[in-house]
Design brief:
single chain, mainly alpha
């Protein structure tokens, strides 16, 4: 929890520097393949600082995330045998059992698997790399990623645009509880996919 809080604060500090927009792009890119803190954290802070640019920030996050997803796909298709031990050991969300389940999902629900991971707390990085490992249709992967990620980030931007600072105050005050809820949703999302699809 402390490590996550430190990462959260580190991500958030970029909103108060001249490098907030490049940092948002790079964070969205990195989160799509290995980084544990979602770009929503920095997106919220930037949207609060310049509400009139909220949807522009959402677009930057979406583009960075989709390109990061494509990089994750590339890792899966070209480097997985080399890097898989590192991912299974150090990257949250990666397990060998989970990866076998992802393969089954891709075999039946390629678009919906990518879209669901892009829009919900299901770890998108597992899906992007898995898509490459299991060689799902690349145009379908890109399209599903673009739709899911864009809907997610534009929803965050709209909420900030509509409700403003109380959203940020709520996140700061209840961060520890939110991480617990996030993890519950994460596990619940996997169970939902496993038993409902």
């Amino acid at each position: 929890m402390r490590l996550l809080r430190r990462l959260y604060d580190w991500v958030l500090h970029w909103a108060h520097t001249p490098y907030g927009i490049p940092a948002l792009f790079l964070l969205a890119f990195a989160e799509s393949s290995f980084f544990p803190i979602p770009p929503d954290v920095l997106l919220i802070a930037l949207c609060l600082s310049l509400p009139t640019h909220a949807f522009r920030f959402a677009a930057i996050a979406a583009v960075g995330s989709v390109l990061g997803g494509i990089a994750g796909y590339g890792i899966g298709i070209g480097l997985w045998e080399v890097v898989s031990p590192l991912f299974f050991r150090y990257v949250p969300g990666f397990t060998e059992e989970g990866f076998v389940h992802v393969q089954r999902l891709f075999a039946t629900y390629d678009f919906w698997t990518v879209f669901t991971a892009g829009f919900t707390p299901i770890p998108y990085k597992v899906i992007t790399i898995g898509a490459g490992v299991f060689k799902i249709n690349f145009p379908i992967f890109v399209f599903a990623s673009a739709v899911g990620r864009s809907l997610r980030f534009f929803l965050v931007a709209w909420l900030i645009h509509r409700y403003g600072p109380p959203v940020r105050e709520f996140i700061d005050r209840y961060f520890n509880w939110l991480t617990i809820v996030f993890m519950v949703l994460l596990v619940g999302g996997f169970l939902l996919i496993k038993y409902a699809l």
